[in-house]
Specification:
heterotrimer; A alpha/beta (295); B mainly alpha (242); C mainly alpha (123); B: 242 residues; mainly alpha; two-stranded antiparallel ribbon; C: 123 residues; Arc Repressor Mutant, subunit A; 2 domains; two-stranded antiparallel sheet
């Protein structure tokens, strides 16, 4: 069964389209990275999936149910983001104590061990926490729910380097021990790449790529050489990005295919790209990038 | 894939427990208001006559002030529960808009019960204080001991009235959250009703033309439930963490 | 254990190579059980699916074999197979590079073969 099934989902905010046409399925128990630039619609999509906001058209199903106002979806999913709030009248300790009544799979022992490890103050209020500590607490809360669909929206914003890598490690170890579907959004793909099985790349409210990490890596390659040569090698190819290195040389990112093997034999310098580079080039607004500004 | 499937009832129960625990600080506001009510209401009205050298002064004491203050508190608590912070808190845990609203109604009812009972008894506290304070003769109104059924009915009436007030605060809050214009629209309608006197006729038919206190209580409960149902319907359109 | 994440080599290839190295060093002997995908994931801090891909490569190359419900085991002769494969692969790649370079320098096939003969004699 698909955990998430979106068909032509759209959503608009005051005349601007946040989501245009989102169609994808998420199968069980994978860690998927929701990647996209700022304003691509990542947060909006996650809020719709968590049942916090309503989409305008199309169909959204989480565990086969429309998530908006659905108790079963609310019970089995959680969205961790920096807008999570908890009552001011409760201390962090009391917030954690309240959770098992709601989340059937809540792991009290795990929550308190993480809480102690990250040295949070049990008597503090959630709203008084620093940005980093708040992110850490929300992460602990999200992991401890053990929800079948656990979603993180830019979870490491505000965390320092050490906490970040601890979080990624904790996420992975807990996932290995308790496999579940995890959707994690970030605009720093390189940072979370290792954890991911699949990548869902969205751009301007549309799904651009939804493939395994390795497929994304192999989606495009960079070809470098003399202008005439590079143009000959890449004629008829789908050019994703191109940049003049100097008067004579050109750097072009094209969709990977077997025809390029010939170019390699002719002496072309063909480089593989990191998944984060592929995502960056695929979602860039202009073919030339920032260099276009300085022309 | 393991999916848990709780009933609406059990989620509402968990939410009510959580809210009572989280919002119990409101009790302090209630206590402060009641103390204030006792102090202000301790000497509500007096009249006096003097025959020859004997002066008779009649002092009436009432806990109406307490009731008015607590009613205002009920309105503001109802309103408070609809503010963003309170609504969003629910969605950090398991909730739907329906379960949240039902839980809020129940919480308002429980608070109304508590406030109703304490307000009623604050009247007795006042009598007690007056006993020690002055040397005057007391002419008591009915009390639990000489009329238990009327006592119960009075408490129930206070509770339902408080519940009504808090639900008025609640619906006003929801309207305000929905769109500020709706709220001001509602205010305009209320003012119009007051100005044209329609309000008096409506409230007369609700509050005055009653055969007994029991009928009044029934009416208030029905109105409250209608108000809260409307709030739920409206809040179904409200997004979270937007 | 740290992987080279900047490498152009996919992570699952690096995992497969690491396992091969362990077999060559005889830390895993013939018919011995190797790490599961979850142990590898924990060890290298990677997604278990990626680790599984690394194992699958080795199963396809018959360096490992699967026992249903028990895990992956080192095939007999695995070490020889790896050594042979590496020999072939590295050598082929080097020869390819030589041929490409020769082309760039307009060295003919005959001249290249002559060069190889000369080298052999020198050594």
């Amino acid at each position: 069964m698909n955990v998430i099934d979106c068909q032509k989902v759209s959503k608009d905010f005051r005349r601007t389209n946040a989501l245009e046409d989102i169609t994808f399925q998420l199968t069980e128990q994978k860690i998927t990275g929701l990647i996209g630039r700022n304003g691509a619609g990542k947060t909006t999509l996650l809020k719709i999936l968590a049942g916090l906001t309503k989409h305008r058209s199309g169909e959204v199903n989480v565990f086969g149910k429309s998530p908006y106002n659905n108790l079963m979806v609310s019970e089995n999913s959680i969205l961790v983001d920096d807008q999570m709030t908890f009552p001011d009248s409760l201390t962090l300790e009391e917030v954690l104590q309240s959770a098992p009544a709601f989340y059937k799979r809540w792991d009290t022992e795990f929550a308190s061990r993480l809480f102690q490890y990250f040295k949070l103050n049990p008597k503090q209020q959630h709203s008084k926490l620093s940005k980093g500590a708040k992110a850490t607490f929300n992460m602990i809360f999200g992991l401890s729910t053990r929800c079948e669909l656990t979603m993180f929206d830019e979870p490491t914003n505000g965390m320092d380097e050490a906490v970040r890598s601890d979080f990624y490690r904790a996420l992975l170890k807990d996932y290995i021990a308790h496999p579940r579907s995890i959707l994690i959004s970030s605009h720093h793909l390189a940072e979370i790449e290792q954890l991911l099985e699949d990548i869902l790349l969205i751009h301007k409210g549309r799904v651009v790529l939804h493939q395994s990490l390795d497929e994304v890596k192999e989606y495009a390659v960079a070809v470098q050489g003399l202008i005439a040569d590079v143009e000959r090698w890449t004629v008829g190819e789908e050019i994703i990005h191109s940049k003049r290195i100097d008067d004579q040389r050109l750097y072009v990112v094209v969709k990977n295919n077997s025809k390029l093997e010939r170019a390699r034999i002719e002496g072309a310098s063909i480089q593989t790209l990191a998944a984060s580079e592929v995502c960056m080039y695929v979602t860039s607004e202009t073919k030339g990038g920032i260099d276009d500004v300085f022309k | 894939m393991f999916l848990s499937n709780s009933s609406l009832f059990s989620v509402v129960k968990a939410q009510v427990k959580f809210k009572i625990n989280a919002y119990n600080g409101l009790i302090y506001s209630l206590i402060i208001l009641q103390v204030l009510g006792i102090l202000l209401g301790g000497n509500a009205g007096s009249s006096g006559t003097s025959i020859n050298s004997t002066t008779i002064s009649l002092n009436t004491s009432t806990n109406d002030v307490s009731f008015i203050l607590v009613s205002l508190l009920a309105i503001s608590v109802g309103n408070l529960l609809t503010t963003k912070a309170y609504r969003y808190d629910d969605f950090s845990f398991v909730a739907t808009r329906l379960s949240s609203n039902i839980a809020n109604f129940i919480v308002l009812f429980i608070f109304s019960c508590f406030a109703g009972v304490t307000t009623y008894f604050s009247g007795y506290v006042m009598r007690l204080i007056l006993h020690f304070k002055s040397t005057s003769e007391f002419v008591d109104s009915s009390s639990i001991f000489n009329n238990p059924s009327s006592f119960l009915l009075t408490i129930v009436a206070i509770i339902t009235m408080l519940w009504l007030f808090s639900s008025i605060g609640y619906i006003a809050g929801i309207l305000f959250q929905m769109h500020k214009l709706f709220f001001f629209g509602a205010v305009v309608i209320v003012v119009m009703l007051l100005m044209t006197g329609t309000w008096i006729r409506i409230s007369e038919s609700i509050f005055v033309e009653n055969g007994s206190l029991l009928i009044l209580i029934m009416k208030v409960i029905i109105i409250t439930i209608l108000l809260l149902a409307t709030s739920t319907a409206i809040s179904n359109r409200l997004g979270v963490r937007t | 254990m740290i992987l080279n994440t900047d490498s152009t080599k996919p992570i699952y290839v690096q995992i497969a190579e690491w396992l091969e190295n362990e077999v060559i060093a005889e830390r895993f002997k013939d018919d011995e059980k190797v790490y599961s995908q979850y142990q590898l994931a924990d060890l290298f801090n990677i997604n278990p699916a990626t680790a599984a891909k690394g194992l699958t490569i080795l199963v396809e190359e018959k360096i490992l074999y699967k026992k249903r419900g028990l895990g992956m085991f080192v095939a007999p002769e695995a070490k020889t197979m790896i050594l042979e494969k590496r020999r072939n692969e590295t050598l082929t790649k080097m020869v390819k590079d030589i041929v490409l370079e020769a082309k760039r320098l307009s060295v003919t096939k005959e001249e290249l073969i002559q060069l190889i003969h000369n080298c052999e004699e020198e050594i």
